[in-house]
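Example S7 (structure tokens).
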């Protein structure tokens, strides 16, 4: 494997250690927890809401339109690039 520019053969590349690495781990855990909380709440609503509304007497033909409310979550991969960053950031 060829050596990277500016490095001697056998020289190690500096990696984030200590507080920087633990901060990145904490951030990853927080985002993972947020994603899990969103998924759990969404699944509960998607499963329980039709049942509760049907028990309350809502007709099945009207209840079927309820799933239109979940389209933003199902199609978020389509609109995410539109609201994401426009240009990739330069690497230092």
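Recovered sequence:
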């Amino acid at each position: 494997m060829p050596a990277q520019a500016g490095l001697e053969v056998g020289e190690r590349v500096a990696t984030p250690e200590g507080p920087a690495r633990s901060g990145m781990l904490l951030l990853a855990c927080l985002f993972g927890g947020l994603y899990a909380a969103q998924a759990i709440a969404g699944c509960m609503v998607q499963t329980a809401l039709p049942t509760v509304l049907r028990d309350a007497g809502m007709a099945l033909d009207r209840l079927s339109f309820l799933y239109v409310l979940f389209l933003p979550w199902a199609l978020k991969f389509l609109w995410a690039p539109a609201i994401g960053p426009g240009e990739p950031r330069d690497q230092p």
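Notes on this example. Residues 43 and 49 are 10 Å apart (CA to CA).
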